[in-house]
Design goal:
Blueprint: H1 8-20, H2 24-38, E1 43-46, H3 49-60, H4 65-79, E2 89-95, E3 102-107, H5 130-134, H6 145-156, H7 166-174, E4 176-177, H8 180-188, H9 196-202, E5 215-216, H10 219-231, H11 234-237, H12 240-250, H13 261-266, E6 270-272, E7 275-279, E8 282-286, H14 293-304, H15 309-312, H16 317-337, H17 348-351, H18 354-361, E9 394-399, E10 405-411, E11 421-422, E12 425-426, E13 439-440, E14 443-444, E15 462-466, E16 471-476, H19 483-496, H20 501-506, E17 510-512, E18 517-520, H21 529-534, E19 539-542, E20 549-554, E21 557-562, E22 569-571
């Protein structure tokens, strides 16, 4: 596939890369030699130490960045089951250290073929309550993670497929200590007990969440992985595992779904054209639809390119105001246009046109908030009514010894997904990322439910390149619809304010989704609320638990960061 789409941004990159082609080998060798001499060239940043260790072991065994990402995510399914897993999906960006090409892989879940636009409407035609829709089989999309891994491994893997499963199988059999975060989330959850498989796994004989440090074994998951390691992803999408998934979804008492064996057998992961946009002296690359994250991040950064954020600095209310306003404008477009491009025409090129972004930037006043922003292009469909989704998800970033890099965000949507557990793993509730209302203001909503369609996401795995096509940064975060904001904050903190990767990730969160400006409670930014209110912002101070992970290429080697708000780590050799 081509490195970049045929957009204005893509044309700009190709022109830069063509001019720099004679220097590519020198740039690559310089990067590798610098990293080898001054810092380990391999790195993984992931949301749990066991997962990071599994990925590091694969790197040390001669595995590629994709190999390590697969091994790490299979462990995350086990030790961080609330966030992601083989019962869900992912978006993956891959940077090739030799060709400098960026590839995008879409493993987003799909709606069953039998799903209709009224999937989340009650008998009176009104939207169901969120939790009534989530818990059970109705919300489960056809999982895409393993087909994504199969596709990416065929293109970029180095180690044999079965080797990637060994760490997760061993840990599932021997058991792992329940982490504080897993214990806390099980204790807070009101729905896991409704289903026998989940109840038997997450609670002890006294019906209490397993204590922190309890060694939790999952032989059912180990058996599942053995089958997939031996027979490939096909063992998941056809045969006994698929039959059990369908039986669980269709048999969920009180809220069954319509998934069929044919839906699983037909699932395909997709290679998508990468979206890239110039930002100052860099190029920022992200995922295209069906996630809205790539477009939202690129639009926000493209608008911010018209302002001197470096001159304002990280402690400036004015800088927060500008970032919030740029995000507000991006989210106005997101609500109207972004959906599965296989079902809806998404004007990506127009939304990322530098002239359009310049016009959007001109709407921002330095002295007064826009308030509610309006979309900048006309569209035949209606804007999607606002829906908040409980943040879960996970992100990991990997660099291998050849300069290949993966930035991947994976999810089962809300914490513990649908709460349905099959063969040791949880099934997603990703279909609740569709609009519950198929029509609004008399027009169809782009992100309405349709059979075979992929629900809109906010996941935003991101890569940053320099003007010669060399890698600069890999980053991403969980966090529901706040994900684009978390990624933008990290990009601005690193690229504009010069913070190292750990400091950029740890920097207090602030997000605007075309409504209130949210500031992370308990941080110095919360004290800026009066300044923003004086500029016309509605401000909310609240917890904002991101889970960003990533690294940046520096003259000294790879500079990694893990979000202190969760349990992640950065590991090299």
């Amino acid at each position: 596939m081509p490195a970049h789409p045929n957009t204005l941004a893509g044309k700009t990159i190709r022109k830069m890369q063509s001019a720099a082609a004679p220097r590519r080998l020198a740039v690559l060798l310089s990067f590798l030699l610098t990293a080898a001499c001054q810092s380990p060239p391999q790195m993984i940043a992931a949301a749990n130490p066991f997962a990071a260790e599994a990925g590091r072991d694969i790197l040390n065994a001669g595995g590629s960045a994709v190999d390590a990402a697969i091994a790490a995510e299979l462990v995350l399914t086990l030790v961080e089951p609330q966030s992601s897993g083989v019962g869900g999906g992912a978006f993956l960006l891959h940077y090739d250290g030799q060709s400098q090409e960026v590839s995008a892989y879409d493993g987003r879940e799909t709606a069953p073929a039998a799903a209709t636009a009224d999937l989340f409407l009650d008998a009176e035609g009104k939207p169901m309550s969120f939790w009534d829709a989530v818990v059970g089989g109705r919300s489960v999309g056809v999982p895409g993670l393993l087909r994504l891994f199969e596709t990416a491994h065929r293109a970029h893997g180095r180690l044999p497929w079965p080797r990637l499963f060994e760490a997760a199988i061993d840990l599932a059999e021997s058991g792992f200590p329940v982490s504080p975060r897993l214990h806390e989330l099980v204790a807070r959850d009101k729905h896991l007990r409704r289903f026998e498989a989940a109840k038997a796994y997450f609670y002890d004989r006294d019906d209490q969440p397993h204590a922190v440090g309890h060694r939790l074994q999952n032989p059912a998951y180990a058996d599942t992985l053995r089958r997939i390691a031996r027979d490939g992803a096909e063992a998941f999408y056809n045969g006994p595992i698929a039959a059990d998934i369908v039986a669980s979804v269709r048999g969920a008492v009180g809220n069954p779904g319509a998934m069929s064996l044919a839906d699983l057998a037909a699932y395909e992961a997709k290679a998508r054209p990468v979206l890239c946009l110039p930002y100052r002296r860099w190029q920022i690359c992200g995922m295209p639809p069906p996630t809205s994250g790539g477009v939202a991040v690129l639009q926000t950064m493209g608008i911010l390119a018209h302002f001197d954020l470096a001159g304002l600095g990280p402690e400036s209310p004015q800088a927060l105001h500008l970032v919030a306003e740029a995000s507000r404008l991006a989210f106005a477009d997101r609500g109207l246009f972004l959906a599965d491009p296989d079902f809806v025409t998404v004007p990506v090129e127009e939304l990322l046109d530098p002239a359009y972004l310049a016009d959007r930037a001109a709407l921002i006043s330095p002295t007064r908030s826009l308030g509610k922003a309006e979309p900048g292009l006309p569209a035949p469909q209606a804007s999607m009514p606002r829906q908040d989704d409980p943040p879960s998800t996970t992100h990991l970033a990997v660099a291998d010894r050849w300069g290949n890099v993966v930035s991947m965000t994976a999810s089962i949507e809300s914490a513990f997904g649908s709460r349905l557990m099959v063969r040791g793993f949880l099934l997603n509730n990703e279909l609740t990322d569709f609009s519950f209302l198929p029509r609004s203001a008399g027009r169809a909503v782009a992100n309405r439910v349709e059979g075979g369609k992929r629900p809109r996401s906010s996941m935003s795995p991101t890569l940053v390149l320099d003007d010669q096509g060399a890698l600069v940064m890999a980053v991403g975060s969980p966090g529901g619809s706040r994900i684009p904001g978390y990624v933008v904050k990290t990009l601005v903190a690193s690229l504009d304010w010069g913070l190292d990767m750990q400091a950029a990730i740890a920097f207090p969160n602030f997000v605007n989704r075309n409504g209130a400006t949210d500031l992370e409670e308990g941080t110095p930014l919360a004290r800026m609320a009066p300044d923003l209110e004086a500029l016309g912002h509605e401000v909310r101070v609240r917890p904002m638990t991101s889970g960003a992970h990533g690294f940046r290429v520096t003259d000294e080697g790879l500079d990694g960061g893990a979000d202190p708000r969760r349990e992640g780590v950065v590991l090299t050799r």
